[in-house]
Amino acid sequence: LPRGPLVAAALAVLVPVTGALAALPLVDDSAEDGTATVAAVQGNVPRLGLDFNAQRRAVLDNHVARTRELAADVKAGRAPQPDFVLWPENSSDIDPYANADAAEVIDGAVDAIGVPTVIGAVVAPETGKLRNTLIEWEPDRGPVATYDKRHVQPFGEYIPLRPLVRLFNSNVDRVSRDFGAGTKIGVFDLAGTKVGLATCYEAAFDWAVRDTVTHGAQLISVPSNNATFGRSEMTYQQLAMSRVRAVEHSRSVVVPVTSGVSAVIRPDGEIVAETKMFTPDVLVEKVPLRSSLTPATRMGTLPEALLVALAAAGLGWSALRSVRARRTGAQ
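Now predict its structure.
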């Protein structure tokens, strides 16, 4: 093989590995902006799999009950008072804007704990697409801000080419109404802490998390609903993604999940608290807040683009040399 392409291939592997090792001293989990005590509520679901939301009210009631239990524990001195509370994605699949009874029980739970709470809801406008929405719910005030998931999941939250896909699998109609994508970056001010929001699947996309940090997030929340995937490894894969995001942006990451695994992750990627799967639980942890930007946050996808360009240049050079060699041999 030509030596040039081999060198290019070796550099494509060695440069990022060397860079990662050289960057280890830059990993910092100090509390630049103080700390916040955060609670992540895992209410659990009545059943696993694709039909988990058949009992939507039970899922909502589970999260209300866990939050009220936390409030009782705080009052009794068994748990610290959180600065804010995070519920998972789909913790209220009943639209609280359209259903007064859902809004009433959420109000009661938030008033009981007495701090801002982020609720994961399915919002169903009279017309148009559904919204996978996170709602900032304040005690005595109710909903004050929203974030609509920007990167909705194909075949999970909407069905592309529905008539064609239906020919192969009738399960597409389990998603009877498509979700639409939001457009605004999600950063909530929760009791003075800027919390960036990346809902579930969005944690897999660099820009969806990075945007929140460049817009001031001191902490990242990844509310998720993994009940659909049962006891598969998917929930652990997503937790690993959240650990990567913590180190990448040097931010604490809190992952509230309907059915687990919920977790609290420090900026160095260490998991300091986590739940078991398919059990009700609440995590309450003090985490460091940070506002400085890492090289990864500043550069975004530029290093990836440069590595792809380098690999493409190496392949192009190799192909060109091969063509020239064949022509020379033919002569």
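Residues 143 and 280 are 25 Å apart (CA to CA).
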